[in-house]
# Entry
Amino acid sequence: MSELRWDPIKQQWVIIATDRGRRPRDFTVETEDGDMTCCPFCYGNEDKTAHELYAIRPSGAPNTPNWQLRVVPNKFPVLRVEGDLNNRAYGMYDVMNGIGAHEVIIETPDHKRGMADLTVKEIAGVLTAYRVRLLDLRKDIRFRYMVLFKNHGVMAGATLSHSHSQLIAVPLIPPLAAQELKVCREYFEAKERCIYCDMIDFELREGARVVQEFSDYVVITPYASTFPFELRLYPKRHGHDFALLNEAELSGLAVAMKDMLSRLKAILRDPPYNFILHSAPPLQPRPGKPEFWSSIEYDFHWHIELVPRLTQIAGFEWGTGFHINPTAPEDAAAFLKEAAI
Amino acid sequence: MSELRWDPIKQQWVIIATDRGRRPRDFTVETEDGDMTCCPFCYGNEDKTAHELYAIRPSGAPNTPNWQLRVVPNKFPVLRVEGDLNNRAYGMYDVMNGIGAHEVIIETPDHKRGMADLTVKEIAGVLTAYRVRLLDLRKDIRFRYMVLFKNHGVMAGATLSHSHSQLIAVPLIPPLAAQELKVCREYFEAKERCIYCDMIDFELREGARVVQEFSDYVVITPYASTFPFELRLYPKRHGHDFALLNEAELSGLAVAMKDMLSRLKAILRDPPYNFILHSAPPLQPRPGKPEFWSSIEYDFHWHIELVPRLTQIAGFEWGTGFHINPTAPEDAAAFLKEAAI
# Structure
């Protein structure tokens, strides 16, 4: 069981492995798994993962080969489904049990293809898997937020090179999500408009940071990008919840995703990156606590944030929360626009 | 000139290089400078740095060899001293010029010695240089905060391996510092006690996270450590401002620093790390704006925060602000206590 511990000064929760965690000698440089025979995400190694929660397969039984996509519980989950929260005090600190869920979306059986190499139809399958699993996890009212993200490359924190995304359900709203929801709430309160709709409108008129526009989506480099070549993918029409998209909307999103990932791969030679879905959290009932975000369908605008991992986060950034970006987003957009894809 | 740009949703400032910044082809893996003949921080290469701002040298003229320590302006500053802030609006965003100062403290002429290898007396010299430069930069009332930090190792963001620290003066209070000062302020307001004094008292009584105690200082692993083997060095007596330490206090601190860095080096085989000084900002006069932190000498407790860089920050941490730490701080403290130094 891990613990969630609260730091009263930094005002943040940390997930701490309190069982036998990593020892000093365990922090050696991790190497890539070039060998497909032992990759747990390849065909024929289905017994090396836990039983699948969802799959796309033309035919055949669960947990056998011939699938296009599989979702399985993570073998080394950071949070576990069993138990209760047991929210308690310890001296001046707070602590609760590490309850949650941790799933892996194996995006393709092919060890060598990254997400940018998948077809639009295959990417649409990945997005469908995201939607299915998000909707399923919402049924557990202990989970207040679902973090859906992808680590691509060792430098971005991926421990297996076979293309996959992860979904972690957590028992509280993470600090950056809480802050974003609060800002959106206050903006709507003041103006009766969505802050993201206003921003997208401004960016489309300015143009200098637009990488590519589609009928329903747009990819931009944010004005105050914290990292070089940082990207945001927004739906142009207001919508708070990714999980409410229909088939046609998911197909349109797959086109935009394929385009965005291909440009990045072409210009930066397959860089390591992280992306994360920002979508409205489920509004779970809490004793005596009406949700601050009850108007969330007006306030919030779902989107995808992507950061290539080209620079190290150094002492200045880590200690101040203030980033230094050596590439202006206007320059990054110009390079990405010209990508030969 | 760089720009400081404000993100109205993430509520953060970013320093962006708007001159010719880094192009896609510039993001290649940086290599270590093993060759001492071209290291700008070695003896005989004093002409490869800008003129020194401060030095410790037994004899000889400025900018010649035979020094023990030098402080020079950074050759590639992220912020520049010249110009004015020109705080303005751009659409729904805010922007100001990148005014500041960026200095490098070259801690030793010896290319091969890290800070842990310096003598206590040499470390006291480094701490003296920190104090001298902090006091000098405070005279410029455009600077509202000084970030004093060290990147050790490529993985921690160091671009030169020769041991050095950096000092960046910024025209605003960075977000993490502002949050910390606010929490300290509110705690003092409520209890008339310093939150750090209470925490140090609790940790000394508990003991499980104390790495080493000295007469005036203590090194602990924080209860909600965000990274494995994270460390804090606190003065046991309340004090808000590092720059007010006298010679004897700096000598005591040098002993504690040497001990902390040596334990880390022994247990984790010279890991990459960052440390940062948290000290009270100078209270600069602002038109029409009384300082919120005017009681800072009671509220705040200076200290040093250190994080070894053993794990990559991945999508989950970056996107949620919520960290996963695979080593409990109690285990980390136990290993560090036993270090053979």
About this structure: Residues 247-268 of chain B form the longest helix (22 residues).
